[in-house]
Amino acid sequence: MSSHDNERNDKVLSDDHLPQSPEGRGQVAVADDPFADPGLPPHEPRRQDVDERAAKRSERTISLLFTLAMLATVGFIAVYSTVSVEKIVYIFPFGHVSATNFGLGLTLAVALFATGAGAIHWARTLMSDLETADERHAVEATPEVKAKVFDDWKQGVAESQWTRRKMVRNTMLGALTLVPLTGVVLLRDLGPLPYSRLRHTAWKEGSLIINESTMQPLRPEDIVVGSLTQAMPEGLDPHAEDFHAEIAKAAVMLVRLEPEEIKDQRSAEWGHEGILCYSKICTHIGCPATLYEQQTHHALCPCHQSTFDLADGARVLFGPAGHPLPQLRIAVNDEGYLQALGDFEEPPGPSFWERG
Ligand code: FES
After folding, report:
1. What is the Cα–Cα distance from 317 to 91, expressed in whole angstroms?
2. What is the pTM of this model?
3. Is ligand 1 within 6 A of the CB of residue 301?
4. Is there an atom of ligand 1 within 6 Å of 319 CB?
5. What is the pLDDT of residues 292-326, one digit of tens each?
6. 316 lines ligand 1 (CB under 6 A)
7. pLDDT tens digits for 48-80?
C-alpha cells in the first residue's frame, strides 16, 4: 500500500470517529469549548408529570414491587428454615430438583428483581427527568458551588417525591431493610458454633492410652528410651462419624527419657518414670509434630519446621509455633496400664488467639 493510500485511509478513519458538530461531518469541537452542548431535544413532560392519576398509578405499582420484594424475602427465610435439604420435587421443565435450592433461588430472584424493578420504575416515572448539563471547573469547588450542590441535593430530594410519596418511600425502605436478610440467614451455613468443644478432648481421668498402630493399651515397658509412640485415648472408634474430629484434638505421642535428662520439673512429675505424653498436634497450624530426634529429644513439625524440646516441657526452640505442645498427665493403673489423669489443661492444636 502506498503512502498516499495510507494518508487517505487515516483521513477516512479519523473523519468517521471524530465528534460531530451541528455544522457538519468531521468538524471537531473547538479547543476553547471541548465539551460543546451536543444539542438535547426539548423536554417532553411525561404522563405522570401532568396527570396526577397516572402518577398515583405509578406510585401503587412501585409500592407493589417493593412489597413483593419484602414478601419474597420472608418466603426466602421461610424456605430456608422449614424445607428439608433432602426434599426433592418435580418442577417442569427442570425435572427433579432440590426443593430448598429451588425455593431459595426463586424467592431470592423475585426479591432482587422486584427491588430493582421498583427502583427503576420510580426513577422513570416519578423522579424528575429533566436533563441538565454541569459545567466543568477546577477540581476544588468554591463555596458557591458547594452551596449550589446542597441546593441541588435538596431539589433532587423534592423532585424525587421522597417526602411526598410516603407509600413509595416506606415500602422501599422496608424492601431495602429486609432483602439483605437473605444474606444474613445464610450465615447459618457456616455451621454450628464450637462453644467449648475446642477446649476439651476425648481424654478423661482413667482413659487408657492406646497404641495407634496396634490398637492395644500401652504399658510402661512398651515405651523404650529413644522411641516415640503415637497413641490415642481408649473408646475412640476409627469408624465413627466424629472420629477424625476427635482424633484431631486427642492424638498424642509418648517418649521415654532417662529421668535425669528431663529439664522441666513439672513435665517430669506429669509423666511416669521418664515417659512423657504430649499432644502431637503442632501449635502452629496443626500438623503432626512427630519427627523425633532421639539424641536431642527434639520433635520437629514437617510443615514449617517448628521444633519442640520434649525434655523441657515441649518448649518451642524454632519455627512459627507460638506455644509449647500441651502435656497430658499420665500414671499407671492397678493393672499396669498407662492411663490419663484427666484432659489436657489447655486446648491442644493451633494456638488460640488469647495465647498471643
Ligand atoms: S504446622 Fe507445624 S510448624 Fe506449621
Report:
1. 62
2. 0.53
3. yes
4. yes
5. 999 999 999 999 999 999 999 999 999 999 899 99
6. no
7. 999 999 999 999 999 999 999 999 999 999 999
